[in-house]
Predict the structure.
Amino acid sequence: MTEHLTVEGGTIAYEVTGVGPLVVLAHGMGDSRAAYRFLAPALVAAGYRVAAVDLRGSGESSVGWASYTRTDIAGDLIALVEHLGGPAVLIGHSISGGAVTIAAATAPSSVTAVVELAPFTRKQQIGLGDLRSARFRRGMRHLLGTALLGSTGQWRKYLAVAYPGPKPADWDARLDQIEAMLREPGRMKALQGMGKTTPADAGARLADVRCPVLVVQGTLDPDWASPQAEGEAIVAALPTGLGRLAMIDGAGHYPHVQFPDQVSALVLSFLDSVRA
């Protein structure tokens, strides 16, 4: 059942299932909380209370926000944790990977652990070596087309690159759902607004994180020429001993959707170690 939380600037939609320690799931840009349709049930079955969130401007959350930075999203997540009676584990994908980093650094008493899935958590510097990757060039071309043209067709083409190899069983239906959402007034503008932001605000807070962090990257993620190098750089920027990196072989930018069983096992093992 969808619930709404009013924060400064609009309302955030979310749904809560399960009983136990709180885990908050935040998706990436151009998506909705349905991105966690496979991971959320596994967490609930393992004894967690799971709150899946629609980011500002996405899903069933309101549109017309003044800005869409990772710091803004972090504030929304902290407000939800406080509303639901945290503390919580925060799981964030892509732009939300940066947001959960900021939330953990800003409100350490509210965040017990962080999982970053294919996260944009550091300022990106594209070099000539990156451009030698055909996968990276294809993904970047469609991302730029989406940002500049506001094109749902370009976004669908990006997703085809971002999901190399196996697709989820509901692939075609899910693409249609995403396109329908982005055609709603204000939704594409939210995607474009997120795409224009920089991860620098998240990168600046990595050293301030005080809880355990799991970074999950797909080996075929088109958003980086070397996803492993990006993951290693995030872990290196965290305080010593707090971060760990897991690579999902064959996964693109959505490892939790392409390989939900592997990601669920990684996340649950990580959460067991945190609770211990």
About this structure: The first strand starts at residue 3 and ends at 7.
